[in-house]
Write a structure and sequence with these properties.
Elements: H1 2-22, H2 30-47, E1 57-69, E2 72-85, E3 90-96, E4 102-108, E5 113-118, E6 121-130, E7 135-144, E8 154-158, E9 164-168, E10 191-199, E11 203-206, E12 209-216, E13 219-226, E14 237-240, E15 243-250, E16 255-262, H3 267-287, E17 298-302, E18 308-309, E19 314-317, H4 322-333, E20 339-340, H5 347-363, H6 370-381, H7 397-400, H8 403-421, H9 423-435, E21 443-444, H10 446-457, H11 462-470, E22 475-484, E23 490-499, E24 509-517, E25 520-528, E26 533-537, E27 543-546, E28 558-561, E29 571-573, E30 580-584, E31 591-597, E32 603-605, E33 613-615, E34 622-630, E35 634-641
Parallel strand pairs: 1-10, 16-17, 17-19, 20-21, 22-28
Antiparallel strand pairs: 1-2, 2-7, 3-6, 4-7, 5-6, 8-9, 9-14, 10-13, 11-14, 12-13, 15-16, 18-19, 22-23, 23-26, 24-25, 24-27, 29-30, 30-33, 31-32, 31-34, 34-35
Helix pairs in contact: 2-8, 3-4, 4-5, 5-6, 5-8, 6-8, 8-9, 9-10
The chain binds zinc ion (ZN).
Amino acid sequence: MKRTIYLILACLFILRVAQAQDSQAPDSAFIEKMAQQEGQAWLKKAQFQENVGYQDYDLHFVRTNWTVDPAIRAISGDIQFHIKALSTPLSSMELDLQNNLVIDSIRMQASSFTWTHEDNKIKINFENPIAVNESAIIKIAYHGVPSSTGFGSFKTTQTPDGTPILWTLSEPYGAKEWWPCKQSLVDKVDSIEINVICPEGYRVASNGKLISRVTENGKVQTKWKHNYPIATYLVAIAVTDYATDEVYLKQENDSIQILNYVYPSYLEKAKTKTADMLNIMELLNELIGQYPFADEKYGHAQFGWAGGMEHQTMSFMYHLDFELVAHEMAHQWFGDCITLGSWQDIWLNEGFATYLTGLCYENLLNGAYWELWKKNQISRITTSPMGSVFVKDTTQISTLFSSRLSYSKGAYLLHMLRWELGDEAFFKALKNYFNDPALKYGFARNQDFVTHLEAAADTSLTEFFNDWYYGAGYPSYVLHHYTDYSDNGKQLLTVNQTTSDSSVDFFEMHLPVQVWKDGQSKLLRLHHTVNPQSFILDERPDSIDFDPDLWLITKGSVTMSTNQLTAQMLKLYPNPVVDQLVIEPKPNERIVSVRISNSLGRLIAVPELYHNQLDLSQLTPGHYFIQIKTNQNIYQQQFVKASL
Ligand SMILES: [Zn+2]
């Protein structure tokens, strides 16, 4: 009886541990799901035509006053826009607002104007143009029932507890479906104040710092203030009967608040996740630089969309599992603080968020899932031999916004850059890129990042980016170790690569090769610059492992050693050979036939011998296997054909 109870308890414990681990482990389908959700949004972004007139004015402050009730699908509000005219005197300006929302009034101090609301745009014509660098305040009052398109930019439904919930998810261009705004990827609002009135009993989650929450006459008025530039699609509210939990990441002089708004029934579970959140935040601060909104907060608000959305300082989350928390938090640095300047460089958001999640697996949870995470990425990347990380073409949705390229291969490009440049230069470049005042809180292009990498490592990365970013595919390697008896028993390691896509004929890389001797190993870093290439080893190894730590994107690479055959080998020389290869048979042996195979084992020639010599002048340079049949034995050997 005791034993049974003990077993049941043990099972329960294992089950609990297993569940706890599951919510932290990398999910092999996670990136696919993420990419599918985010990719749809990116596609819309890529196809969106921004208003031409948007370049004529800068939006420097927005104050919103919204009234909502999660039980009723409707919104009313008034929005203040503080604008500044740019290059030309501003005679008119445009904003976006879906036609089905009704404008109650537009007001502006000290200026006469007319306005129209057509084609989902508000156009305001000023009687007296606003002079360059002069500011103006425009107030727009509106109301209506937001339409529901895409992800549901304005969603009302119920939580699993049966409570009404309302959330917004504007990415990429759904904001105009619920508020008048400047939907821009080139102008962030410099700061924003968000005021929301809702019925008592609800709590409002939003961007920035919670300034006040006042209950009066059955209504709650909540004020959030965000003092950093923010792209329109990252402005969001979520309203339900949230339970709240907060923890603080202690820092030298200060602390960063992590604020969780979750369904009451999820609160206990959420509390078990806060240790991971603090660890992730601390790690990203250390690896990249201080969380860019540290004096406000970072938060999570639970919502019903099965995924996550990196709303600035308040990610909306389906759950709080490790991988999703890491991905959305990483976006605060790359995506929110530094936003990609062109959708072609989508990897600057997604490859980075994915790699930062990988770094969390490397450095946290005792590194238990790091290898699994790397294997997941490599196997996803190499499911197809084609496709570049750089987005060439908007029309091929499935390949462009793919989890394989923008997320996994983008992440692995960073991992390979780290291997090529070394940890010190790589992380220095990452920090410098993030802290570049020209980019921080603004926008970046791929070249901005490359410039920081090249400066930190004092090297050119043109070839790396041509091959790995603009080019497609990956290399497969054959490493062949053998003893060269024609040259005093020299230990040689010959390396050959084939590429999976014709856009790149050779990937110049440093190869991690681990050689073992008497139970000891050392990691060699072989600079592979030409095909084939022979490296001399100090001594004869017991075994060789290629890329044991998974630094490179490669598939089907093999290492071979022919030590076991050496005693019986025939002498072949010269090796490498340029044209004439001599085969020296043993006494009393006569060569009957010779077959030559390439490095992948495919038969390519059955040449004729002339005085025990082969004419190989027509053979393409490379690494070859040769089978030599004599009247007594069959020998399997190899040689390298060198170019002239
Ligand atoms: Zn993402």
